[in-house]
Amino acid sequence: MSNIEVNSTSVESSKKKVSFHTLGCRLNFSETGSISQGFVDRGYEIVGFGETSDVTFINTCTVTDSADSTCRNLIRKAHKASPEGKVVVAGCYAQMDAPRISKMTGVDLVLGTTEKYKVFEYLSEDESDAIHIDKTKDFYGAATSVSEGHTRAFLKIQDGCNYVCSFCIIPFARGRSKAISIADAVKEASEIVKSGFKEIILTGVNIGEYESTSGEKLTDLVRAILEIDGLERLRLSSVEPNTITDELLEVLKSSPKFLDHFHIPLQSGNDEILKGMKRKYTLSDYKEVINKIISFFPEAGIGADAICGFPGETDEQFMDTYNLMRDLPLTHFHVFPYSKRKNTVASRMEDHIQHPVKKARVKSLIALGEAKLRMFSEDQVGSQSQVLFERKNKKGLWEGYTTNFVRVSVQSDEDLKNQVRNVYLKSFEENRLRGELLQ
Length: 439
Hints:
The chain has 439 residues and is α/β, with parallel strands linked by helices. Among the domains are: 13-132, Rossmann fold (3-Layer(aba) Sandwich), CATH 3.40.50; 137-259, Transcription Regulator spoIIAA (2-Layer Sandwich), CATH 3.30.750; 384-437, CATH 2.40.50. It is 36% helix and 22% strand. It has 15 helices and 19 strands. The strands form five sheets. The protein has a six-stranded parallel sheet with strand order 2-1-3-4-5-6, sandwiched between helices. A five-stranded mixed barrel has the order 15-16-17-19-18. Strands 7-10-11 form a three-stranded parallel sheet. β15 and β16 (398-401) form a beta hairpin. α8 packs parallel to α10 (218-226), α10 (218-226) runs parallel beside α11 (246-253) and α14 (315-327) packs parallel to α15 (355-378). The longest helix is centred in the last third of the chain and has 24 residues, at 355-378. The protein is globular and about 60 Å long.
């Protein structure tokens, strides 16, 4: 018996290990999910980032300067943790600044936004060329894997973008829009459900471009996924306001599986700034979309992005954004300082805003967002919601999210992970909803 135990331990210790760190958007997380599953299928054990591993895979973001800086710090941390292991830097930052990354100590492979799916080929090759950033028009599917331990699965249905917003580098990093077919999306979603996930979030760079890219209707894709047996919850990730249609809202409203939670990017509450950003809507358009969503989903949680300090933005124009976000029924704020991105139209504009001014504007909007989310949460006290539980917090309480994406915690001796339960929202304490399980 002891020999068997020793052999088992020996086999376990000889197993190759891989660690991951993902930065940026939900799309990146879905892609890391597929790649991590590929490592598991090849016999790797996934360990925490910063632990000793044979391979460290960093899936990067390049939306802001701070994202680039964070990536470089992670590379140094990965090499320090596993000096003999291989460090793979992949994704958007890798696509845009490969030569600089490749010169960093410890970096073995730099893979662009499409080449990262070929990581296994490159790891098995003994070659001096560490940079692979070829672009392709092919669509690479991706979805969260069970091996990552998440309870909500991101399913990638679209990639790239045909918009050229003046501040945005993503079209340069990810290329033009491409999309999955409905048949393949349903197949992948069905596999996700079979693997145990109860909630799926459909994600992409600009999923509102799905029809113009694929030739198939987004509403047909959503209908097909909502009909999958075993799927309990469906959300959409960020959707551009100019792509929200009555038909889409009607399809979403028709199914109890769709959750009353949206993310509709705003960026600015001033028409002149929106024009400079080359956004495809006006303030009037945006207000109409938000009010229409509320007419379909009165209790909806609605998130919005905002950029502070776009070149030339005056105090008055910033206050237009502040006042609009205060007055509209927006509940979840994602606030960023404008970040100058090389080769974008905005980077060549005049009147760039000083960092302290941008920082102050960001701080004030974040404070407003926190106050609005608190009010939104408090307004739900005394009601009921279905909650998908994810984990226990440090206080031993189970935490999950309501349908409209408010975090709630409950006391329970049951194992609630990945369970959807009816919860009575009884109080708001320590900046968090507290609830009780209902039978």
